[in-house]
């Protein structure tokens, strides 16, 4: 056991090479069945040894009482910005991986809009190698779809895949050229890679800050209208249909956008989509506060759009909830709205705010939320999620009743641009098991 000191906080990492654990009495999420039921789980030597309704508390076994707590496979985030290389002052691979673990995520996908953009085998290999060295949440690189993210020439996908990328995207920017996007889908499809689209038609969003609505009219701010997303999704679905390749729509936000994806899936077009916690919980009215932490791209939409996203979670149109974790320095976010960068961090708070905002009011069931954070995202990138005897220990324990304040003392990110920073939240990650490692928070 060793103490890890960093910035103004300390916490413990416990390495349990020989310790056996018995997690007793929790509600266990079995991903194969998408069910929650009480069970005891024994962990030893980095693997799940036994699962049963009750297990004996043998000598030399460490017991974790988990009555009324959740035990689930580690969460998977399809969409995190870790800023390394280029902006290590706001996030590094290490700090992002710690923030992920503290939020229950054991796998995260690192977006390529770094400085320089991650568009070569060497850059992707660096991410994979660094992830192995850290031994924290597993970081899967996502390669740039085009060289330099310039939208003009596709990157070397075969080399990127050799280095471990699980998808390609120019996230942060839509690929404007239809011909380049068609090539991206064709070549990615040949290699079994998914193409992730940031669906905002840029000519409709120039200098836009927020959603076009009665709120924007009241505030007099420039807009990023819903039609910008819908036009982009419509074109990309047409190209996905033409090529037969897998298109994934990142951070979908609009009623019409959801309907386009729904219709495409009914037709058998290989399209998946993700929604973020903030688009599921907040609306554009949050910007009445002029707090730049609510400035995100795509922007927060209307209550009608938010409800459409929720329906899409329930009927399977949206497969995953992804954080779009986007760290920014304090001084950058404390500028006027039109100057502040877009984005908020979310790895550490996602499960807490979703649980309190959607599960406790019975908007969605806990099994659905856990599916959207485990098997759902795994299916997009071709991963498998298991919770059975002899499978590797890849688990998190969540206390839905715990109350905590997200603040500088427990924030694992190097940034704090979150509307939930400094606020009391309900529901907290207590333990994460990752192979032979055990982390307590």
TrEMBL record:
EC number annotated for this UniProt entry: 3.5.2.3
State whether keyword Zinc applies.
yes
Q: Which part of the chain is the Dihydroorotase catalytic domain?
A: 69-254
Q: How is the cofactor bound?
A: Binds 2 Zn(2+) ions per subunit.
Q: Which UniProt key words apply to this protein?
A: Hydrolase, Metal-binding, Pyrimidine biosynthesis, Zinc
| SUPFAM superfamilies referenced in this protein's UniProt entry, alphabetically | Composite domain of metallo-dependent hydrolases, Metallo-dependent hydrolases
Q: Which cofactor does it need?
A: Zn(2+)
Keyword 4Fe-4S belongs to the record: no
Q: Which domain of life is it from?
A: Bacteria
Q: Report a single Gene Ontology molecular function.
A: dihydroorotase activity
Q: What class of enzyme is it?
A: hydrolase
What this protein is called in its record is: Dihydroorotase
């Amino acid at each position: 056991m060793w103490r890890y000191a960093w910035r103004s906080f300390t916490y413990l990492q416990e390495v349990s090479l020989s310790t056996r654990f018995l997690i007793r009495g929790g509600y266990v999420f079995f991903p194969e069945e998408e069910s929650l039921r009480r069970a005891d789980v024994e962990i030893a030597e980095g693997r799940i040894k036994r699962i049963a309704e009750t297990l004996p508390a043998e000598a030399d076994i460490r017991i974790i009482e988990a009555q009324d707590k959740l035990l689930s496979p580690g969460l998977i985030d399809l969409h995190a910005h870790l800023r390394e290389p280029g902006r290590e002052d706001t996030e590094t691979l290490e700090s992002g991986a710690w923030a992920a673990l503290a939020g229950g995520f054991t796998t995260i996908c690192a977006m390529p809009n770094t400085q320089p953009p991650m568009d070569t085998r060497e850059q992707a290999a660096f991410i994979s190698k660094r992830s192995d060295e850290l031994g924290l949440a597993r970081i899967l690189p996502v390669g740039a779809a085009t060289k330099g993210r310039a939208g003009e020439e596709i990157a070397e996908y075969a080399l990127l895949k050799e280095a471990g990328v699980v998808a390609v995207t120019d996230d942060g920017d839509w690929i404007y050229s239809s011909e380049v996007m068609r090539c991206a889908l064709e070549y990615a499809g040949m290699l079994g890679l998914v193409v992730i689209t940031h669906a905002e038609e840029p000519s409709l969003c120039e200098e836009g800050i927020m959603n076009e609505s009665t709120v924007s009219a009241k505030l007099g701010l420039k807009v990023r209208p819903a039609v910008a997303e819908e036009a982009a999704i419509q074109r990309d679905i047409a190209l996905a249909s033409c090529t037969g390749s897998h298109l994934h729509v990142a951070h979908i936000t609009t009623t019409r956008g959801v309907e386009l994806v729904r219709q495409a899936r009914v037709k058998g077009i290989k399209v998946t989509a993700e929604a973020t916690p903030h688009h599921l919980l907040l609306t554009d009215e949050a910007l009445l506060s002029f707090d730049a932490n609510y400035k995100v791209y795509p922007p927060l939409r209307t209550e009608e759009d938010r409800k459409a996203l929720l329906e899409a979670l329930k009927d399977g149109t949206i497969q995953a909830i992804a954080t779009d974790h986007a760290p920014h320095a304090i001084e950058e976010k404390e500028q006027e709205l039109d100057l502040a960068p877009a984005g908020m961090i979310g790895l550490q708070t996602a499960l807490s705010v979703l649980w309190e905002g959607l599960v406790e009011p019975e908007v969605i069931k806990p099994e659905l939320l856990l599916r959207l954070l485990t098997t759902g995202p795994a299916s997009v990138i071709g991963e498998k999620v298991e919770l059975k005897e002899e499978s590797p220990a890849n688990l998190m324990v969540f206390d839905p009743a715990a109350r905590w304040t997200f603040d500088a003392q427990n924030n694992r990110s190097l940034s704090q641009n979150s509307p939930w920073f400094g606020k009391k939240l309900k529901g907290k990650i207590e333990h994460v098991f990752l192979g032979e490692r055990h982390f307590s928070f």
